[in-house]
Design brief:
The chain is α+β, with helices and mostly antiparallel strands. The chain is 28% helix and 15% strand. Strand 2 and strand 3 form a beta hairpin. The mean pLDDT is 90.
Length: 80
């Protein structure tokens, strides 16, 4: 289980107020750093929590109803 998977619940909480919003990767990283300042930004990859896109080492939520994001295009995600 990767770092992102271990912190899934905390990361999800960061985006409750943004449901339905489209955010860039940079904005997502900024929100996580603001709300979780001790989280190592090297481990912030929105695609690890996508319902429609994934990569090696993704969270267990990827491609499930527990996903946090939907990939719109490279670098742009909708909070679901």
């Amino acid at each position: 289980m990767g770092s992102f998977a271990r912190h899934h619940g905390k990361i999800r909480e960061c985006f409750v107020e943004f449901r339905g919003s489209e955010l860039t990767t940079k904005e997502i990283k900024s929100i996580i750093k603001l709300k979780m300042p001790s989280f190592d930004e090297r481990w912030i990859h929105p695609s690890d929590h996508c319902i429609n896109h994934t990569c090696i080492g993704a969270c267990e939520c990827a491609k499930t109803d527990s996903a946090i994001f939907e990939r719109i295009k490279r670098g742009l995600y909708k909070v679901i």
